[in-house]
Amino acid sequence: xxxxxxxxxxxxxxxxxxxxxxxxxxxxxxxxxxxxxxxxxxxxxxxxxxxxxxxxxxxxxxxxxxxxxxxxxxxxxxxxxxxxxxxxxxxxxxxxxxxxxxxxxxxxxxxxxxxxxxxxxxxxxxxxxxxxxxxxxxxxxxxxxxxxxxxxxxxxxxxxxxxxxxxxxxxxxxxxxxxxxxxxxxxxxxxxxxxxxxxxxxxxxxxxxxxxxxx
Length: 215
What we know:
The protein is mainly alpha-helical. 59% of the residues lie in helices and 11% in strands. The protein has helices spanning 2-26, 40-45, 56-64, 81-94, 99-129, 146-149, 169-205; strands at 50-51, 69-70, 73-74, 79-80, 132-137, 140-145, 163-165. The longest helix is centred in the last third of the chain and has 37 residues, at 169-205.
């Protein structure tokens, strides 16, 4: 039983780290520095925001709220829930009887369960909408989301080279969003497993922390 929590902790930490990497890469379309082509899908859906609540949340809310604007609304999910849940599970596994570690782990697992479906839904919408770029199609050029300019959902196979600047943004965007979808689903499964195990322990024992005779 203890091995399950340790494995789940490492899985969440690993997936969270991959999420941070994916989120950082998403801010540089096709590895360029043209951040003005970064649309709402990156600011919201990128899993860099789907991590752990921490001291930086207040900073992000204060300093980026005026930047992350989507259709007149401002949204930010500035937390690292998956990483924090994983670290807390590893610490709780190490100090098996520490009640506060298990309660904190349970809290962040629940938060991660709430964040993963939202992240998955927005990433899916972003994949269907297509990238935000300077496009050229049949003599018509402009800057915007390809899902609005061409067709929704955007047919990637039919229009593989619509984005002129940055070039090849369609493939980059689709691969990144598919990666984000897989990460979200994997984090959801890991968090759900831990959540169910802790719920069973709570029902049977009346608490979620371990006991000395379970060592």
